[in-house]
Amino acid sequence: MPSSLQLSQRRLILASTSVTRRELLTRLGLAFECIAPEVDEVPLPHESPAQLAYRLSVEKAAAVAKQYPDAWVIGSDQVAVLLDQQAIQQGQPIGKPLTTERAIQQLQQASGRTLRFGTGVSLQCAAQGYVDTALIPFEVTFRT
Questions:
Q1: Active site (annotated) includes residue 84
Q2: How far apart are the C-alpha atoms of 126 and 114, rounded to whole Å?
Q3: Which residue of 14, 35, 100, 103 lies most exposed, with the fewest beta carbons within 10 A?
Q4: What is residue 82's predicted lDDT score, i.e. its pLDDT?
């Protein structure tokens, strides 16, 4: 892990357009900027939701780190799946709803059930040759 001195000597970039991720990083009181990564987010054949979140976090950070090699770049992605045999066997992640109707449908699907979220986070600095990536799993059970 880089020291706080190493972090403070380089600019910090969040490789994301997510308002939520921007708000979370703002809470830490760090100076940073956001740059949209140009990454295809389509799952690869036979890629599990957890593998997808991990891969996309790495690819997002790497895409921006390539453009800004002296910066510390954070890439992140999160994928959710319903925990039941059908969802696990099909490996179908639950995507962003994008519409009110779809959001209602997703909440109704999740009612009384558990969702597993996998959040991938990757910190990279090309000039340092530094890459550290983690996948953080957690589960949320919805009330009926």
A1: no
A2: 38
A3: 100
A4: 85
Secondary structure in 3-state letters for the chain: CCCHHHHHCCCEEEECCCHHHHHHHHCCCCCCEECCCCCCCCCCCCCCHHHHHHHHHHHHHHHHHHHCCCCEEEEEEEEEEECCHHHHHHCCCECCCCCHHHHHHHHHHHCCCEEEEEEEEEEEECCCCEEEEEEEEEEEECCC
What are the strands of the beta sheet with 33-34, ordered from one edge? Answer: 33-34, 12-15, 72-82, 114-125, 130-141
On the question of pLDDT at 110 being above 50, the answer is: yes
Mean pLDDT of 133-143: 93
* % of the chain at pLDDT higher than 70: 88
pTM of the model: 0.84
Decide if pLDDT at 89 tops 80: no
Contact, 97 vs 36, CB < 8 A? no
Is residue 59's pLDDT more than 60? yes
Tell me if 62 sits within 8 A of 76, measured CB to CB: no
The token pair at 128 is: 């340092």
